[in-house]
User: Fold this.
Amino acid sequence: MKSGQADIVETSKGIQKSGLMSRRIAILEFILRIVACFNTMGSAILMGTTHETLPFFTQFIRFQAEYSDLPALTFFVVANAVVSGYLILSLTLAFVHIVKSKTQNSRILLIVLDVVMLGLLAAGASSAAAIVYLAHNGNNKTNWFAICQQFNSFCERISGSLIGSFIAVFILILLILLSAIALSRRN
Assistant:
């Protein structure tokens, strides 16, 4: 009888330790979702408010640079806004994972939706990165000149918004891995 009781005690301690680890993972996921949400929201706002005007010869002729002039940058803003909205909505499920330990179906749902949002965000950030590269370096073969010497503030802002978006891509990858680890610990 004594050895049977010892096995039960050890098993319950293992369950408690596993539950504590799952709760820690859920808290880390919640915090990472908040950080990713601020990164995507900040990137969308920074890119969406980017505008610079330069005078040319006279006061009446001016050159403008706006994010909406390029469809890739518009897609970047929309992708970041959609992912930011998703991350805000997913905070409720992430909070449920902190409170309840047996939430296997919602974890699977979050993994699938996180992968979809990762694809959307990576596509938006990559398309904008191509445009930012052209803005900084130009392309001599197609006669695209680098505009960052003239539109310095514009280029700084769009480059900064790209950094925030790629940080959010990395955080989404971490969230997918953490959710997979939490699922594997339960089985």
Q: What stands out?
A: The helical segments are 2-48, 71-99, 104-137, 152-186. The two ends are 29 Å apart (CA to CA). DSSP finds four helices and two strands in the chain.
